[in-house]
Input
Amino acid sequence: MDNAGHDSRRRSVPRRALAAIGTLTALLALFVAAPGAATATSPSGGGSPTAHPELDWMGSTVAAHEGRSSGGAVTPNAAQTLGFDVSHYQGAVNWAGAYANGARFAYMKATEGTTFRDPNFSANYTGSYNAGFIRGAYHFANPNASTGAAQADYFVAHGGGWSKDGKTLPPMLDIEYGPSSTCWGLSQAAMRTWITSFINEVHAKTTRWATIYTTTNWWTTCTGNTSAYSANDPLFIARYASSVGTLPAGWPFYTFWQHADSGVFPGDQDYFNGALSGLQNLANNT
Output
């Protein structure tokens, strides 16, 4: 995720400051390259390093590109299950406290590209499980850096697997605005090819169709609003407003909704579109 500003309540250092640091670091990197430093390879074969994976998280580009609604509180039309998503930005998460406050599921960043592993993933994955959460891992996509299949393999090998234990959600692809190009420099056709490569590889390795996290605006702009994945892949829509708005083509409903980037729980505030029993069914693939 890019360097968009987020609410500074999450950490003592505001995310806008962190984003500025990340931008400066990226600029310096143009002039100073560490010998032997790892870089990703683009699908076309050209080098395209991931500039700042430590500054990317689920929804980090959304507010800067799409804003936040000034409307009232979210009022879902049906039963919703509370949850949230985190990365290392939240530091040590009080999982027991979040569960006591009503959250029942969480997604957490595991990987980005083919070189970055979130340093807090293991602690988050274990801590959430021990507190009773149904939880899942997500991968932040860098579509200009390497193939979808290559990133899927890296993701599954470093936290993105799945087991039918009633506590593990489908692996998730987080695909959103690029740092310098909305669509990461890819055409709509190339983006669809990349997503298909990632989705199919995750399915081959885990037997699960990945959840797709995105926004309707990004999806329309960068994939041509394809409906190709709506039959199999649960939709995790991001929209910081009092209603979910128009969904991407093909999906008749959202499975998850990231409705705010701050709130009572750590990280972003999410809903599962249904009762806890439905969430359990999704985890069990039933």
